[in-house]
């Protein structure tokens, strides 16, 4: 296959398998899905043999830390975009805990522009709820909403908006522009110096426990606040069985709440802490097997709406140290689809149609992101991912495309492999390999989409 | 093929002879402390002390004990960790005659360690050495004063020394060395297995 | 033994071997020359990221009695407090040729990280990590109990059937954790008594009973009562109202001490808060082993250093 450098070069994808198992061809042209059907041909098109590959709408991550501006030693918008593309993503929501914080129109527009220049995925900035993530005063939410970045998701992620009055006001205020507050649910007093899930293992290891109730109590408070003021609430990285119960109850009551689970909370358990390898240190912490099962069940029954990565790059020195001193967080963009495949597809809980919903259409809808998550329809933007479900690989450093290596999956065997990713009609990944930054930048710089 | 060199009766006779020699050299059993080097040296020391008590009925208080040398060895870090045995030095050894007793004398390194250990317990007037078997191949300027049996051997050969109290049977035998020149017992702990 | 990081997972045979060697080491203290040449030429580094003069001098005495060279590296006021990482410190010690590192660290698991990191090849002894474990303290406690019960015939024996009640801040106690695993491995029955706030949240995996009532525990007639130090800072974090109330409910005061059998062994890892968790009468009684524990600490640490630093390094 040749690497064409013009955005308008069409692609003919042959024999891709749809989520329902049928096989069909796709033609991508002018940034859109031009044709769908069998036996298609297109003069001048680059042909992609998709035999045995599942075709999914381009994945959308509602929760990504790109670290730029401010923490470029961990990740940049370019390297994070590359990690996303390798993972089959065509859009990521960039969390606000940069430096400076994404709490003004200027910063969110800068992040947007850097994402456009990189060109691998749509980088949609998230705005901070409070100035400097300090939890004291509301940031200029309206200015960010009306900026070029059109911010709709607001979050202090990394910190909880713990002040109930401030949370109430934020929930109310974002109704003015159909925004949503994505809450990092962590009661700060109950988690002072917390190091790992509180339970039998933390008791044995002598680690300060991170109780489930610290998450559940904030979610309970927030859904009641959302009900009271009639606002939308999004709950970031749900990690406990009790949280799933609270959200299930809230949804049954008609409260406008959506929730996400991370791939790592769907697969990994706290037992990994035993060796004190700080790659497994994350906020919220890895929980018990029962919690993992409850999250999977919640994702299957729709209580949990989406999977979001919480991709959190950290430099080597932030992890190569004693547990208490290590930073929280794991990279997850490159592995997300394989991990979800292992956790909920191989276990029969979700099928590939569900995966398209929880990793593409619903996160795009929650984030009010146009041009993403519209599905595999003629005329829809050509945002696509080709995935080989039969593949299996021992995941290694070489499979990471971002700047940081703090993956919990190194040396683990994971199923499946992203073979190709198409963004705005051009390939960002082909044959499992990332296309070079200069080619992509040349394509992505075009604004016609 | 193991070849028996001493049987139980031979060992008993050798120990009685050594006991006589000790008494002769010490001119009686006065101021005599007999210290065995664990494990089998302690058994031999006890038997010698009993023999002395039989030979010299007036010697009612021949003092006998054990002197562990593990902490004084020079091969720490070159072999697996050795488990020490108990040291029991019966009273002061200042100014007395100490007879060290070991089973097999080989490189001499155990005795070197024993002399160092002894010095940390006091200052004997005289130190003598009794061994049941001397198989040669000394690596240090050390010799035994009382020897049960001189047994010239090649380093490839293996000396087996069994005592009833430790092994359930009793003999000294010699094994032909491994034909392929494989592992031989190093150090001098010795030949006894 | 490659490292001594915890008592959890230590086998009964390993523990008894170490205690028996400690008996031999204790005998050395009675000799004219109280020193062994065993670790001549070896370097032991005491790497202390927390102040603990008692533990440090105990290890220092142990290493010196075995003729090792001792380097004390206190992290306070050094480059470590200026942000040097554990990795850089470890590599510095490796470059200096440390054969053994005795580490005290406020983070649970730090000794484990040091041992597994590949930054340094030395044998690692955990001298207390966070609120995780303090294995040599448990070993000296076991040694002390065994000597009290069996005297000169202690060698080779475990603690089968001995009942031990540990009282106090179990939640934050690395001493309690290490003792729990070691004493039960040696056959003892352990029960824990503490305010509910100072018991770990989930002890389902612990081979011990737990309760809140010290009086009931006293009346059960334990063979050993081990009082833990109560940190003043706990009072500021709402673990209990004040020292008076703590002392009244969970202190070994004169009245409770008087109800114990005369043969009961009273232990405390030190330093004691007299009048808070333990009364002076109890601390100074014939049943008290507080001073023996200090002396035995040196013997047990000599045994640990010997086992760690002798033998091929390939041995695991």
Automatic annotation (TrEMBL), chain A:
Keyword Translocase: no
Stored Pfam families: DHOase
UniProt binding sites for Zn(2+) 1: 63, 65, 157, 310
Binding site residues for substrate: 65-67, 97, 283, 314
Pathway terms, separated by semicolons: Pyrimidine metabolism; UMP biosynthesis via de novo pathway; (S)-dihydroorotate from bicarbonate: step 3/3
Molecular function via GO: dihydroorotase activity
Cofactor binding mode and count: Binds 2 Zn(2+) ions per subunit.
Function comment: Catalyzes the reversible cyclization of carbamoyl aspartate to dihydroorotate.
Signal is among the record's keywords: no
Annotated keywords: Hydrolase, Metal-binding, Pyrimidine biosynthesis, Zinc
The Dihydroorotase catalytic domain, residue ranges: 53-241
Domain of life: Bacteria
Full protein name: Dihydroorotase
Cofactor(s) the record lists: Zn(2+)
Family as reported in the entry's similarity comment: Belongs to the metallo-dependent hydrolases superfamily. DHOase family. Class I DHOase subfamily.
Entry binding sites for Zn(2+) 2: 157, 184, 237
Active-site residues, Swiss-Prot/TrEMBL: 310
Originating organism: Cryobacterium sinapicolor
Chemical reaction(s) catalysed: (S)-dihydroorotate + H2O = N-carbamoyl-L-aspartate + H(+)
InterPro entries referenced in this protein's UniProt entry, alphabetically: DHOase, DHOase/Allantoinase_Hydrolase, DHOase_cat, Dihydroorotase_CS, Metal-dep_hydrolase_composite, Metal_Hydrolase
E.C. numbers: 3.5.2.3
TrEMBL record, chain C:
Residues that coordinate or bind carbamoyl phosphate: 54-55, 104, 134, 137, 270-271
Domain Aspartate/ornithine carbamoyltransferase carbamoyl-P binding: 2-146
PROSITE patterns in UniProt: CARBAMOYLTRANSFERASE
Pfam families: OTCace, OTCace_N
The protein's enzyme class: transferase
Ranges where the Aspartate/ornithine carbamoyltransferase Asp/Orn-binding domain occurs: 160-308
Binding residues annotated for L-aspartate, in chain numbering: 82, 174, 229
Record keywords: Pyrimidine biosynthesis, Transferase
Keyword Isomerase: no
Functional pathway: Pyrimidine metabolism; UMP biosynthesis via de novo pathway; (S)-dihydroorotate from bicarbonate: step 2/3
Reactions accelerated catalytically: carbamoyl phosphate + L-aspartate = N-carbamoyl-L-aspartate + phosphate + H(+)
GO molecular function annotation: aspartate carbamoyltransferase activity
Enzyme Commission identifier(s): 2.1.3.2
Family annotation (InterPro entries): Asp/Orn_carbamoyltranf_P-bd, Asp/Orn_carbamoylTrfase, Asp/Orn_carbamoylTrfase_sf, Asp_carbamoyltransf, Asp_carbamoyltransf_Asp/Orn-bd
Lineage: superkingdom: Bacteria
PANTHER family in UniProt: ASPARTATE CARBAMOYLTRANSFERASE, ORNITHINE CARBAMOYLTRANSFERASE, MITOCHONDRIAL
Job of this protein: Catalyzes the condensation of carbamoyl phosphate and aspartate to form carbamoyl aspartate and inorganic phosphate, the committed step in the de novo pyrimidine nucleotide biosynthesis pathway.
Record family assignment: Belongs to the aspartate/ornithine carbamoyltransferase superfamily. ATCase family.
Quaternary structure and partners: Heterododecamer (2C3:3R2) of six catalytic PyrB chains organized as two trimers (C3), and six regulatory PyrI chains organized as three dimers (R2).
HAMAP family per record: Asp_carb_tr
Protein name from the UniProt record: Aspartate carbamoyltransferase
Source organism: Cryobacterium sinapicolor
